[in-house]
Design goal:
By secondary structure, this protein is of the alpha/beta class. The chain is 52% helix and 12% strand. The protein has helices spanning 13-24, 36-45, 67-71, 86-96, 119-126, 142-146, 160-170, 183-205, 209-230, 235-238, 241-250, 257-266, 271-278, 283-297, 303-312, 318-326; strands at residues 5-9, 28-32, 61-64, 76-79, 103-106, 132-137, 151-157, 175-180. It has an eight-stranded mixed sheet with strand order 3-2-1-4-5-6-7-8, with helices on both faces.
Length: 333
């Protein structure tokens, strides 16, 4: 049987874990990275110690720093670079792709700085809307995905048939994919839960306990729902694996880099130092800025989001966020 070839652009922790998932499903996987040492390690030792240590990669995963090589004779393209790099990468991809229609799947959780566009919008804009675009999002730590532990995520596309095709190709005994058509809800929920992970980390850094974090997440999720609904998200998406489920996971464990960055914020470090200490992209910082600006645009009063924005811009302290949470009344709507 002919193997389906998949290209993963980005060789960070999640890109590597997803490559392993595809390899288990009998895909031939080509990874692209801008880091020569990472590509060399994957090719020579079948490991990626910099981003996913302790995991042995099968031989049907290869790596290259040449984008043209990565895109040659491929069937599916997965985007696993940080959200702020997606537009530039897609510009390069569009020049190199042949004229045929491809399926491009975003794994990136975040919004583009200043435009606040979702990743599917960025991809469509840079490729003139000529490819099928899908998004996969949901509660999925890279290390657990790599370890083949049970995971449930959502896949969304404007084309339901494309989403179903991918779900059938990727599903396994330990991976479930819910098919949806709500790209707006899926992408905004995936981005905004990262900012609440920062807030939850702040509470951890202040040693405030689990009770306080529960109050924060309840009130914070109410604000997230309010904002996402105004932006066009469906309520069922926000209450699904990719909404509430992803929020619970990201806000509850030091495995989350946004949560870890939040811990450093709670300990008094600036956002720049906190991000440097984590050593990977902290998408929640940009998500908080986006949420603040979008809430202001739509004239929404979201006290927790507003205060987190102030903390990140050094005009408020993490302790002030506690006061906001305790003064917040959650209205069930």
């Amino acid at each position: 049987m002919t193997m389906t070839t998949a290209t993963i652009l980005g060789a960070g922790s999640f890109g590597t874990a997803f490559a392993l998932l595809l390899a288990r499903q009998n895909f031939s996987v080509k990874m692209w990275t801008i880091m020569p040492e990472v590509a060399a390690e994957i090719l020579s030792y079948h490991t990626n110690k910099s981003f996913l240590s302790g995991i042995l990669l099968p031989k049907n995963i290869t790596a290259t720093t040449c984008l043209k090589e990565a895109l040659t004779n491929t069937d599916l393209i997965f985007i696993a670079v940080p959200s702020q790099a997606v537009r530039e990468v897609m510009r390069q991809v569009e020049v190199l792709l042949p004229s045929k229609k491809f399926m491009i799947i975003s794994l990136a959780k975040g919004l583009e700085q200043t435009s606040w566009q979702r990743m599917s919008q960025v991809i469509n804009e840079e490729t003139n809307g000529k490819h099928e675009v899908a998004v996969i999002s949901g509660p999925s730590y890279a290390r657990e995905l790599a370890a083949d532990l049970p995971t449930a995520v959502t896949i969304a596309s404007k084309s339901t048939s494309a989403a179903k095709y991918l779900a059938n190709k990727l599903s396994s005994r330990h991976l479930a994919l819910l098919v949806h058509d709500d790209l707006i809800g899926l992408e905004f929920a995936g981005a905004f839960k990262n900012m609440l992970a920062l807030a939850a980390g702040c509470f951890e850094g202040l040693a405030l306990g689990e009770n306080a974090r529960a109050a924060l997440l309840c009130s914070g999720f109410a604000e997230l729902r309010k904002l996402c609904r105004v932006l066009g998200a469906k309520e069922e998406t926000l209450l699904s694996w990719s909404g509430l489920g992803d929020l619970i996971l990201t806000c509850s464990s030091a495995e989350s880099r946004n949560f870890r960055a939040g811990v450093h914020l709670g300990q008094g470090y600036s956002k720049e130092v906190a991000a440097a200490k984590v050593g990977q992209a902290v998408e929640g910082i940009m998500a908080a800025h986006a949420a603040y600006e979008l809430a202001k645009k739509h004239q929404l009063n979201l006290p927790i989001i507003n205060k987190l924005y102030d903390i990140l811009n050094n005009v408020a302290t993490p302790k002030e966020l506690v006061e906001v949470v305790l003064q917040t009344t959650v209205k069930i709507v």
